[in-house]
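pasting for ref
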Amino acid sequence: MKKLAVFKLASCDGCQLTLLDCEEELLSVAANVEIAYFLEASSARGEGPYDLSLVEGSITTPDDLERIRHIRRVSKHLVTIGACATAGGVQALRNLADVGEFASIVYARPGYIETLDRSTPVSAHVSVDFELRGCPIDRRQLLEVIGAFLAGRRPVVPAHSVCVECKARGNPCVLVAHGTPCLGPVTQAGCGALCPAFNRGCFGCFGPMRSRNAAALNARLRAAGMDDDELARVYHTFNVTSFGGSCDA
């Protein structure tokens, strides 16, 4: 029986909880694989090698870096799940400032804090077989990824934008109808257009789509009255490192 492992680095545990939320589907997964390591669900610590390892969280501490190198060595396939693992997460916002200054403000004894200068995605340090985006990830996509790797095929996840999901739900465009800033045109689908369905703009939880046209969206946002600082704040959220210089386009 193939072995599945789930690991956590610097993160909030939300993507691991998505796996637990699969409920009935998870029972089917458990019947076909050995869940050898998943501390969110069990105290069992089965040793590798593992056929498939799911990794949540960014590389933020020296311990994270040591662990991910070990996980890569004992994993036939390594899949990163969630914005933290695929893009550094919200914690990567510190890459834009001085980490030492942050630590001195937040912690009473910053000398005890051992951290790296930057928060980076797993792929910056080891090879990754697939990246599943989202904050948190989508349960249907997660099940597709697990099933695909266990079956020996490439996962099939949507590459189109959130705008397509809005059309499918019959949502009016919040940017056009209300002038609400929205990253839907440049964000990969996966959330089901949840925020626009409630008249809120997309926050870019699933990261940038492959063929995005950030320049066109930025021109529209600037025409609506946003200055460069406001535009930067729109992009600087869950996937700040993945969106990169999109706000400069």
